[in-house]
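User: quick one, fold this
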Amino acid sequence: QVQLVESGGGSVQPGGSLRLSCAASGFSLSSYYMSWIRRAPGKGLDWVSYIDSRGETIQYADSVKVRFTISRDNAKNILYLQMLSLKPEDTAVYYCARGRVVPSNLNHPNILKGQGTQVTVSS
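Assistant:
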């Protein structure tokens, strides 16, 4: 069964850090660009980052640049998102998605994504 399962979310104080993981099954991660997207409470999907199949091409949304790092372990079939210096505005459900997701296509219904993991940043 082709699926993505995110984990690693939680509640942290501003300035804290979290590392999200996304385990892929039913397909080889090494064949795909992978992306992270998020949905803040009451808002639409927001693109966070993408990484190419080899980890050589990486892009971030301006809002997370420098603070977040996307990476992948193709041997383990896992995608990661290291988040540092978290802010309250980072509060959202974070989803990993298969493919090169960008703002112009992130609402496409055929994009494979997981069930999401909740990140809450609050003092």
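User: anything notable?
Assistant: Strands lie at 3-7, 10-12, 18-25, 34-39, 45-51, 58-60, 68-73, 78-83, 92-98, 117-121.
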